[in-house]
Amino acid sequence: MPLSKTKIIQNFNRAAAAYDELASLQRKIGKSILRNVAQSAFAEHDSPRIADLGCGTGELLKALADEGFENLTGFDISEAMLAEAQKKCGSLPSLRLVQSDIESLPTDKDTFDVVISNAAIQWCSTQKVIEEIRRVLKPCGRLWINTFGPATLRQWRDVFGDFGYDAVHDFDSTDKIESALHRTGFERIEIVSYEVDVTFNSVAAMFDSVRKIGAGAAQANPSRNHISKPDLRAIKRRFETTLKAEGQLMLTYEVIKIASES
Ligand SMILES: C[S@@+](CC[C@H](N)C(=O)[O-])C[C@H]1O[C@@H](n2cnc3c(N)ncnc32)[C@H](O)[C@@H]1O
Questions:
Q1: Is the Cβ atom of 81 under 6 angstroms away from ligand 1?
Q2: Is 11 in the pocket of ligand 1 (CB under 6 A)?
Q3: How far is the CA of 43 from the centre of ligand 1 (A)?
Q4: Ligand 1 atom closest to the CA of 129, numbered from 1
Q5: Which of 57, 78, 127, 253 should be mutated for ligand 1, with most atoms under 8 A from CB?
Q6: Does the model's pTM come out above 0.90?
Q7: CATH fold of 5-261, please?
Q8: Cβ–Cβ < 8 Å for 135, 192
């Protein structure tokens, strides 16, 4: 089912203030992107131009600046996430923050040496974002993306599904992402995926981890994801039962890491 951009923007605008406190998985996986950029030939390059797509609160941009990278541009669709990024990175001289849909960047062809994106393109059409990256990357530019695959939030999907709700959208598989990269003309494509289980010791903590970081449902058909209060209470009771039986609650994330060259 298609995603609603309006809903995605609302979710992340609401999430922005608490995002950094709750997004520990996103922060953890983002470190591999920092390592890749810092260890690449671009680290020797004279001021490579780097774009972060779906930069959120600017965690990666700030870390890249701390590593000495200049010429950084962050794109995000949520004004509140960008406002947090501005607070975090405000004094950096050569940083630009741009409110934009990353499926259609307000940027000339062949602009960037490096494009990175952490935990963001799962909210977009993979094909459109990859075409945009190909357009704005210079020849021989590098791409590092972390995103999430179909096994992500399967426990959440199953329980909400039992009550008739479509609470998790369809994440693209590694095969689909790889095909999009090939079709668009990328070379030297490397894709790996692995599962991470995040555990919680209360239902409230699990709900916060999904909803307060903006990862709640954003499908375009609201009748499938507007949850009635009685159903929500019943869903929470179901998770309580699992918690009592197993001593903890678990949510799986399928992390997909992509590296490629234009
Ligand atoms: C889970 S956050 C990740 C933020 C950051 N990259 C990080 O690692 O913490 C996803 C971000 O993608 C942004 N986003 C979602 N869809 C987008 C789109 N179509 N265009 C631009 N940004 C988008 C959201 O506003 C949000 O800031």
A1: yes
A2: no
A3: 25
A4: 19
A5: 78
A6: yes
A7: Rossmann fold (3.40.50)
A8: no
Q: Whose CA is nearest to atom 25 of ligand 1?
A: 78
pLDDT tens for each residue of the chain, 262 residues long: 678 899 999 999 999 999 999 999 999 999 999 999 999 887 777 789 999 999 999 999 999 999 999 999 999 999 999 999 999 998 788 899 999 999 999 999 999 999 999 999 999 999 999 999 999 999 999 999 999 999 999 999 999 999 999 889 889 999 999 999 999 999 999 999 999 999 999 999 999 989 888 777 666 565 556 789 999 999 999 999 999 999 999 999 999 999 999 9
- Residue 102 in contact with ligand 1 by CB distance below 6 A: yes
